[in-house]
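Table S2 (text version). Query chain:
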Amino acid sequence: MRTLKELDARGKRVLVRVDFNVPLKDGEVADDTRIRASLPTIEHLLNQNAAVVLMSHLGRPKGVDPKYRLRPVAFRLEELLRQPVHYVPFPPGSDEAYEAVQNFGPGTVTLLENVRFEPGETKNDPELARRYARLGEAFVLDAFGSAHREHASVVGVARLLPSYAGLLFEKEVRALSKLLSGYERPYAVVLGGAKVSDKIGVIKSLLKRADKLLVGGAMAFTFIKAKGGEVGDSLVEEDKLDLARELLAEAEALGKPLLLPVDVVAAPEIRPDAPREVVPADGIPKGLKGLDIGPETRERFKAALEGSKTVFWNGPMGVFEVPPFDEGTLAVARAIAGLEGAYTVVGGGDSVAAVNKLGLADAFSHVSTGGGASLEFLEKGTLPGIEVLGGLP
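Corresponding structure-token output:
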């Protein structure tokens, strides 16, 4: 994988694909974690007196949508860099964007408009990639969170310019590679979130490597129902019950414990003030839905994690965004953060949010900026964005 260390950026215009897909609230950036993560790459290029041209997506707009403009991101980036950031309000493949970029020389930072305003972006349109390539003399891919997508601003343009991995991208690949080989045992994997279908590939891949798998979140109910449990009105993927049985059988055949919740916090609806009760995970009454792992499960998961030397965690244990159904996720975050001498990696929006909420980011070996990308990397051992830069380091 070609890295930033191999790029002589002095005086060059360098196009950088960053991941500024951040939450906005009232026209301002609500969480700048991803912007901060990109600063080392931007500052490295500025130190070489490059003209830095940044491109990113934001949300999933259908065409040009004022809600998804990157202007608020430009303001926040300006504050963090403590230097002007030139925001270009035209679609990044347009002639207007090209002409605007020509006005800014070495030592400047320009932020282009949302690449998803371009209809050809997600289709990896070759003509759009060519129009992006006009914007720089070299390309740096620093958006690890988008590295699993074959989009024009990720792989299309990388094929047309001398291309390199940014500092964040390289850090992510090296950190996640340690979960695939050379890891210390015991190795525990904690998975949560809503759907088994999102995690099938990674479950199969990690079952071969990990010593134990802990499953929480709504995806646990598909497994519990597959084993014959009663899950009330909990979220279940009915069409994935057979698959869940297969995965349970595979874990058993490999002699790997696949731990499911034994109790859950259940309520009739997802509301902070909804009446809630702790019930057995396989005996949830009709009219109630499991919304978080229960106190006994939290203790069991904590005990199962003790002594682990490698841990990967992706996905919340409950409806994290609606307290008090965040308590199970926070308990898991504390348990992993408290492991001494372990290599610990967390990825995925809600899991990372839990770690940040508790101020525990520094207690983890690596906090990944890529949820879907980290899962796909652990499933396949590579990503389109890695391949286009020459493969694994």
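Notes on Table S2: The first helix runs from residue 33 to 47. The chain has 14 helices and 19 strands.
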